[in-house]
Write a structure and sequence with these properties.
With about 725 residues, the protein is of the alpha+beta class. About 40% of the residues lie in helices and about 20% in strands. It is globular.
Length: about 725
């Protein structure tokens, strides 16, 4: 006999879920929609109710009214519909005014449950045994057009059902029952309803939609993408490319030249080059793979085709991340600082061309090509990436006017706000001064220990800057430590906080401000956006990033940077000791020093990394049922303790995962379809490389065993004939 008994839970999961939805939709003008369809009826138009944002009680009552109804399936979407939606209609994509999050429809009973998560979800709902719906709840409402692009990428990235890509889709509500319809009964489901439960509860955390867009951006690659139309191509002289892209452009004997050309296009797009710049670099490649084209015209035509398929999704993902960082924030900013009626009525001023250009002020770089004086930057990095170590090294270089990682700095005074773990900052400063041979008493760096209210003491800081003769760099370590608001996810509060930090850049004589920041929740090395939502990012002049890349950390940027692009700067995080850095028993206390890696060493490491990637990809193809330590040992990679170098293997597999060449599921490493395609050419390349190395070893060995010309093996000279 069928029953309609609800799950017996101590608190109402229905109310918890509804409260979450209304919190996400706060400030949006529209309605949330409850849809009820009865699985026991062959034709059911459903019962549809609309609830204005904030009407939590009414929405909960509308859902719980069906708890005793046999066959009643209740759904609510993660979208806000327009206020004028006709009564009784659920609404379509055209009626959506804002999207609050995305869901991956991963049903085990349809074979759609095995895909990986691009970012850890904020909560997971189990609609029936084994059928999961991970949800990514956004830290701000997102425009439908932007959300749709991310949803397509999410569907491909997770391998989930079609509902994932549909932003108008509706989802089951925790605390209700899942009644099977005729189709599910035909698949073997029990006629008894399954309780809809929360597998992983929501803890109040949110996902930055820009981070999710970047995480899934490379997956939104429709196979029938149209070729792009290219304008005039620029000269390649002076265009900087990443070390990895340079290696791909110059590669020879690559095996499958067509597959290699696609890799070149995708890498140039991933590095952020516009289509015309990427095409110019593509056509100027020095590697013999370009000889597959009979003419430049054919090469250009094929590039346009590949850019539409492989390159454009990366470009769109980058643009989507920047658009989402700026979208829907202007309203909050304007609400905080409304313009007066007098200003808004003032007519625009026309100026002549000559006056327009005479007002130009050239960039004044504190760190050449990267940081300008008077600008506000975040330095976003994962824990352990070395944000403090890099900020301290920059402080020392600016105070001395010394180059920083090979780039010139403008000498100036430094204010360093050590709010997060000032004792650790002290130890690192002692270690840095000793390692670089600097005397702390001679450095024009001024520290403030602990947290204080920047707004309250801004005049005091300005007075100190005046008294000392100005300041060139201010470091805030960290933004989280000096944020004295109540909610880091509040656009209003974080926008106000960012503008407060910008006030520091107005001190005499317009210093650069670097704010060390923690990333958004669940950020990876490729999605390092600062915590605080789009309102915070929108106020910055640049978001510098510090990402862990194997044993080193790479300084670059993501989301926003006013100025030209620059090559990533690589740093080793070295342990150092100093005579004055000891514990109470006189034992050395090791601390961390950021040590720049030169360009030649960067290129050598990139080549070594490529070799590691090739070897472990082929090892996975041979047998993926091995641990990382086993892979390392089988490849002859050993750490100092004599065991397989697990970290080296992890670094290689991480790089391969970022290129979508391998995946790890059910404790087994496997090649993706893309990995299978490139495995053959890689095997040929590895074989040729090892054959060349063996030949070189043989030649060297033979030369060492051969007597020099003009001498016998005893070393005496031969007599003349």
């Amino acid at each position: 006999m069928l029953t309609a008994t609800q799950p017996d839970l101590p608190t109402s999961p229905v109310r918890t879920h509804v409260e979450m939805l209304h919190r996400l939709a706060q400030g949006v003008d529209g309605v949330l929609v409850v849809s009820v369809f009865n699985a026991s009826l062959s034709h059911d138009k459903g019962i549809i109710t609309h609830h204005r944002v904030g009407d939590v009680g009414g929405m909960v009552a509308a859902i719980e009214a069906h708890q005793g109804t046999v066959g009643a399936n209740v759904y609510v979407g993660l979208q806000v519909m327009r206020s004028g939606l006709k009564r009784g209609l659920r609404g379509t994509e055209a009626d959506i005014v804002a999207v609050l999050g995305l869901v991956a429809d991963m049903d085990a009973d349809t074979g759609k449950a095995a895909g990986p998560y691009p970012l850890p979800p904020n909560l997971v709902i189990e609609t029936s045994p084994g059928n999961l719906q991970p949800m990514w709840t956004f830290d701000r409402p997102v425009a439908p057009a932007v959300a749709k692009a991310v949803a397509r990428g999410l569907k491909t990235a997770t391998g989930s059902d079609h509902g994932t890509a549909d932003i108008a889709h509706v989802w089951r509500v925790p605390g209700t029952l899942n009644w099977p319809n005729a189709t599910k009964l035909a698949r073997g489901r029990s006629a008894e309803p399954a309780p809809v439960t929360v597998a992983e509860p929501w803890d109040g955390t949110l996902t930055d939609p820009a981070a999710l867009a970047i995480a899934v951006g490379g997956h939104d690659t429709p196979g029938d993408a149209a070729p792009v139309t290219l304008d005039d191509l620029p000269e390649v002289d002076g265009i900087e490319v990443s070390p990895d892209a340079a290696l791909l452009l110059a590669a020879c004997d690559v095996g499958d030249r067509s597959a290699h050309a696609a890799r070149v296009v995708e890498k140039l797009a991933f590095d952020g080059h516009p289509a015309e710049v990427a095409a110019a670099l593509f056509l100027s490649a020095s590697g013999d793979w370009l000889q597959r084209y009979a003419s430049d015209v054919r090469a250009r035509t094929d590039f346009a085709r590949m850019w539409g398929r492989f390159g454009e999704p990366h470009a769109q993902a980058r643009e989507a991340g920047e658009a989402m960082a700026a979208n829907l924030k202007a309203k909050a900013a304007n609400d905080n600082e409304p313009q007066s009626a007098e200003v808004s009525r003032k007519p625009p001023l026309f100026i002549s061309s000559g006056d327009f250009v005479r007002g130009f002020r050239p960039p004044d770089y504190l760190l050449d090509g990267i940081m300008q004086s008077g600008f506000l930057y975040s330095l976003t990095g994962q824990t352990g990436a070395g944000k403090t170590a890099v900020a301290l090294l920059l402080s020392a270089c600016v105070a001395q006017g010394m180059p920083f990682a090979g780039r010139e700095t403008k000498a100036g005074r430094v204010f360093y706000f050590a709010g997060e773990n000032p004792d650790d900052v002290t130890m690192r400063w002692i270690g840095l001064c000793h390692a670089l041979g600097l005397d702390a008493d001679d450095l024009d760096v001024h520290f403030i220990r602990g947290v204080f209210d920047i707004d309250q003491f801004l005049d005091h800081i300005r007075a100190e800057a005046d008294r000392l003769g100005g300041v060139g760099l201010i470091v805030v370590d960290t933004t989280a430590a000096y944020f004295l608001g109540t909610d880091e996810n509040s656009n209003v509060e974080m926008g106000r906080y960012a503008r407060l930090l910008r006030d520091l850049a107005l001190l005499p004589p317009r210093p650069a401000v670097l704010a060390a920041s923690h990333p958004v929740k669940n950020a990876t090395a490729d999605t390092l956006l600062p915590r605080g939502g789009g309102a915070f990012l929108n106020e910055l002049d640049g978001n510098l990033t510090l990402a862990k890349r194997g044993d080193a950390s790479s300084l670059h940027w993501l989301g926003k940077h006013r100025g030209p692009d620059f090559k990533p700067l690589l740093f080793d995080m070295k342990q150092v000791t100093a005579p004055g850095l000891v514990d109470s028993r006189g034992r050395d206390i090791p601390t961390v020093l950021a040590s720049p890696v030169g360009e030649e060493e960067v290129a050598q490491r990139a080549d070594a990394g490529n070799r590691d990637d090739d070897e472990i990809l082929l090892a996975i193809r041979a047998n993926g049922n091995r641990s990382l330590s086993d892979f390392a040992a089988d490849l002859g990679w050993y750490s100092e303790d004599g065991k397989g170098d697990k970290q080296r293997a992890a670094n290689a597999t991480d790089r391969l995962k970022r290129q979508d060449l391998v995946q790890y599921a059910a404790r087994v490493w496997k090649l993706t379809r893309k990995g299978v395609e490139v495995a053959g050419p890689i095997a040929e390349r590895v074989h040729m490389r090892k054959s060349g190395e063996r030949l070189a070893e043989t030649v060297v060995s033979n030369r060492r065993g051969r007597a020099p010309r003009g001498k016998n093996r005893s070393g005496s000279s031969r007599s003349a004939a």
